Amino acid sequence: MRVSRSGAARSPTGPPATDTPPTTEGDDPFIGRPGGAGQQRDDDAEPLTERDAEVQVHGICFKTGPPARVGVELEWLVRDRLDPTLPVDQQRAATAVAPLSAAGALPGRGTLTTEPGGQVELSSAPAAGLGQCIAITSLDLTALRQVIHQAGLCLSGQGLDPIRPPRRVLELPRYAAMEQFFDRAGPWGRLMMCSTASVQVCVDAGGEGPGWSGFRWRWHLLHAINPVLVSAFANSPLRGGRPTGWKSTRQAIWARLDPTRTRPPSHAEPAPGRRPGRAWPPATDPRSAWVDYALAAEVMCVRRPGARDWSAPAGLTFRDWLRGAGERPPTSGDLSYHLSTLFPPVRPRGHLEVRGIDAQPGDGWIVPLAVTAALLDDPLAAEQAMAAAEALWHQPGRAGAGGGGRGNGWRPGSPWWLAARHGPAHPALATASRRCFAAAEAALVRAGAPPAARQAVAAFTERYVNRDRCPADDVLDLAQTGPGHPPFPGPTHTLREDFDGQDAQV
């Protein structure tokens, strides 16, 4: 959801990309890697065969090599400093950030983009390590906060706007088509597009070999620990000023969206009921699974240059389009654009993009960045995190996410559902979180991570993880007891639990 889905972004290994298509919720600083998912091809006008499409997706989803680079994308709600209930005029916000929007204007060489609801996203330049990533992102964020403050605005690090209703401010064909697509299943798409914000961590895919540094292991580890990250950093318990009944309402909203583009691909997450052990990760091919997932997803929009209507026929998958359905044959550029509209919890875009973390207040983004990087890039921590996550996934009676990309929401009782609903108040998630954070803290020490990063993780662990709490609990405490916030009258659960996408009240 950002206008700047059209901005050029840097690759860890090459020059800035050009002509990058706009994407939503999750553009990343690595998109310009040669052959990356967001890159337009010279043969954009040529019809694409089904076999060519499979080869294209297979070749670009995991760009392998020794893992070294890291990046982060920070989405922020933009609010009036004096009255957070007011809608913010898009022109006011655009004028404020204009001096920093040109390529190279930010001191850390990051990029700014705007989401459909006026959220601002800061995407870091790819960094050679955690310390450099924190340093350059902090420079960019300081510059952004300064111009936002001067305009009488502020950046709010929350996973979901707790007060204001969704309001789309970007009148672009892509977002109109996206809104129409999601409206078929209820109000959840508009909420996601216009009212949510996240921290997204970007890491290299890894090498071709087995073990902790290989792309297969890293792919499976990120899926295994994702509920732990959702739970630990849950920060969206309010909607319309009242509790929703979820610690991460943002994730509850995502669970109600089109499952063909929001669930994990086949075999990505631990299979429920299988006994943990050395057989995990499985000997499956993530590339082939991603090809199947991408081509089975429904088409969200059909580009029509010069036209305002980019809507796609209901139920049209990209594979259907390749086989002759649709108004014209798809091209390589259409496929690249389609890939930018897929939003699974971990998205392969050459590198891996971790998408499940709610936006954090202040400089709280440093903690999920540091924890994720530490658990992936340290061999001992990777093994410990995998073991901790397996214990979470393989509890008796636990169900999975809904068929590896299919189904109609997470199944109640799955790790995803428990993480969004309860956060670390659930005993299994609390145990897994403590084990993962302990592994991450030790890995940061071994890696000689910057003292500020180690201190931030230690402070978060003491304040939240060791007490089975998350940032959402602070929000709920303040909402119940803070000045001017009397206890909530009437029912407090304002999101239904059934995950069927029907009769929604938001």
Quick structural summary:
The chain has 506 residues and is α+β, with helices and mostly antiparallel strands. It contains 17 helices and nine strands.
Question: What does this protein structure show overall?
Answer:
With 506 residues, the protein is an alpha+beta fold. It has 17 helices and nine strands. It has helices at residues 50-60, 90-101, 130-150, 173-183, 188-195, 215-232, 249-254, 259-262, 286-296, 318-322, 332-339, 366-377, 379-393, 415-422, 427-446, 451-463, 471-481; strands at 70-80, 111-114, 120-123, 153-156, 198-203, 238-239, 242-243, 346-349, 351-358. The longest helix has 21 residues, at 130-150. The two termini are 20 Å apart.
Figure out the total of helices: 17
Tell me the β content.
5-15%
What overall geometry do the principal axes of the alpha carbons give?
A: globular
Low-confidence stretches: 1-43, 401-409, 486-493, 496-506
Mean pLDDT: 85
Keywords:
17 helices; 9% strand; 38% helix; 506 residues; alpha+beta; globular; 9 strands; two-stranded antiparallel sheet; disordered N terminus; seven-stranded antiparallel beta sheet; disordered C terminus
